[in-house]
User: What shape does this take?
Amino acid sequence: MKLIGMLDSPYVRRVAISLDLLGVSFEHEPLSVFSTFEAFSRINPVVKAPTLVLDDGSVLMDSTLIIDYFETLSAPASKLLPQQPQALATALGTLGLALAACEKSVQLVYERKLRPAEKLHLPWVERVTQQLRAACVELDRQWAVRPAQGVRPDQAALTTAVAWSFMQSMLPEVVKAADFPAIEAHTARLEQTELFSRYPFA
Assistant: This one.
């Protein structure tokens, strides 16, 4: 089984960490959707990271769909999302905020890196920035009151940390760490674990 994509993508990184927690063995092939586009396209013509090639050759893409597939296959004690409806709704609410913040961060990064400065549409940039900060405000509020995670983070916890590390690497002036102390503390703790260090943002 092969996970295709670079770990500087928060989506690739969340899949790698999730598969590790679920006990799924895989090889990581760090292909870029930019610099190794042709090589990536031979595996998945859509060139979407992450891409996962199963043992039978089936190709899955999109981080949430890949994780959902293995979450379905895992034993109850191994799952990364709660099974009780109320607890699941709470976790999914937090997860949705983390993924929204991640999506808006990626949009801003792409705007800055791929679009010429003279072609930036500032109203769009301002809108995405507002959405990003709104997601972080609510996410920080939730992590300020959520019980501390144990040694095995759930999906909401790991995705929050992965998304925040991406934001702090790529957009530290947009979402300042000092403005979101609960997310910062949560992420700092997870980034110091052996699990996260196996899949460094790079």
Remarks:
- The chain has a mean pLDDT of 96.
